[in-house]
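Figure 2 data, in text form.
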Amino acid sequence: MKRIAWSLMISLSLSQLGWCNTWYVRKDGGTRYSAGHTAGQCDGQSDVAYPGKGTKQHCAFGDVRWLYDAQDGNPRSWVIAGGDTVIIRDGPWRIGHDQGATNHDVWCNNAKDNNQTCYIPAPPAGTATQHTVIEGENCISGCPDSSGIGPEVTKITEIYGGFGLYHVLDLNTASFIDFKGLGLTRHSQCIQHGQPALPSSCSQNGNFPADDYAIDGIATFTGLHDVLFQDMWVHGFANRGVIGPIGGTVTYQRVRVSYNGMAGIDFDDGNGDPSINNPNWNFLNSMIEYSGCNQAYPGTGAATCYGQSNGGYGDGMGAPSGTTLNINFDHSVSRYNVQDGIDPGHIDNGSSTLAVTNSTFYGNGGGQLKWGYNFASARITGNTFIGNCLRMSAPLAGNAAGYNANLGDFCRAGSTLSWNYRDGQTVDFSNNTIVSYGPGLFTLGCSTPGGCLNAKTTFQKNVILGYDNPATYNLGGDVGGPSGIYCQDNTNPGGPQQVDCKKMGVFTRTSNVIFGVKSFTCLATEKCADPLFVGEPKGSRATFNVAQLDGFNTALQSGSPAAGLGAAPQIVGTASTGVVVAPPPVVSPSAAPAPVSPAPVQQSAQTGTWFTVIPAEKQAQTLSVSVPAGTTYRFGDTKNNKWCTPVTISTATTVSDWDAGPEDCDPGTAKEMDILETSAAQTVKIIDSSVTPAVSTPKTVPALPLAIHLH
């Protein structure tokens, strides 16, 4: 009796402490031992190989599918419990049937499953304090790539679906779950959308033999909430990368969604089911690219792309009507999507908020960014938009030579950005950089009958440069470059109708620099002048070509009339499909421009005491340091134990600990910044430009200790 009581006490104590198990999958593991499958070799709870004999051994599972399918004819059920952790090693791992000749397989062999439904079911839910975790072996502590946008794809653990699988991962009902370090894809090249179907159409659902493909990567529904996708790559699916509505907070952190045949992330499941509970969608340090394109296999580039007029679609992100959705799109990229970059244009229900910040949009065939009218507030700040909507009409490095042979609908949105108001909405459109040759720059619509006279828009500190591209003349463009602002009444029974922009409420413009834009008269507080970007292409009209804006450097020349305005400088729009150029030093758009200084003097190795101003773990692309004249500083890549040559400056300047230009010995990596102590204390300022307005924190570099002075 005492033994029973003691066991019960231990059990209750472990439960109260949130005691959870860790499970392992590796190629040299064994079959699943569980209560319903007692002939199994391994219990899955030890990170060791199957010893070669025996059952119920303390070793790893030899296949991912053993986690949720015991091959015993019963419905799929997870062996893990909520709050447990699964570490998946090796790979790639197949999901679905092992063959496509018949509908009978060793996997999913119960009466209710077939080759289409043999996907990973939603894992058991964790709790708010103890999430269930499914992760790849190499990304347990995170695995960002060198740009910080998305994961290092060589480190993620690949899981691929095949033989007509509906989707690899089903999250119909899932909550308090983290997915980390996983790559979801397929191993085939047949296509499901687009005409002509090149290289071939995928087999129809339920037909055999089945092509080895999966339709979608991840399927979601309104039971999904409090889920994290981190360091993942979702790519190459015949339909959508992610499809379906949500019912709560879903966060993407360092995720790439690439080369999905119909769309990247689509909140429309095909039935128009809206997301519920006014959920939050966080898209952070992530990328959506090449939506509407089918990925080559083997390979990583686009094989074929199709627009709506050719049986395709191609939005990077879309949503159905009737949806509420709070959006936080930050430090992310949307590029080379056949249609719109992101299009929450149908967010038309409830009252949501939109924040698109510090992000980059370029090369999308439609609008770079659109949004709908039921956002009570929209904050669009610190972004770079390159409106080169014809870019995919020309070759792009890394893709098949004929990837665009059946691609059309270029510049179909007519404008680089468009948004819709409801009366009373507030919009903050500030500190953005826009370079475009699209037919128009802005289309603004009002969706409240009678007008949006109480809407309020702040339009300030933006830098805008337009180019005259004759190739857009038959797409709605005209001589003289893109037009400025077009306003329309969306409530007109016959369709949208142009109206006076005064119908859009109070539109406050100040401190913008605008050049090359047709029908745009600058106000007294604005400048109509060339912003003078570094290396600014001068081609226009007869000398213009669609690749001319590739590698556009948004840094400003000395003497620019736009100094201190626009987004953080960066190089945008390289033709490479696999690399995002890391931004150079970031100076807050709202802070005073850093003084232009002569080239620093390279110094030999210094002696003395170094004071760490910014530790490596604090470094970020949005941090910079203002240092006084005469300062000697160095950068240290502590991770790789690489120290850059110290630099002494003759004029006060602002430098970044992320990429310090020519004196940076290891650009794009986390480094600490040190300053050499002198005989007098120095004051430096750490500038966090991810905060608007910028936050400057003074920090004192102490004087050299007396003992050193006596030497």
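Caption note: DSSP finds two helices and 45 strands in the chain.
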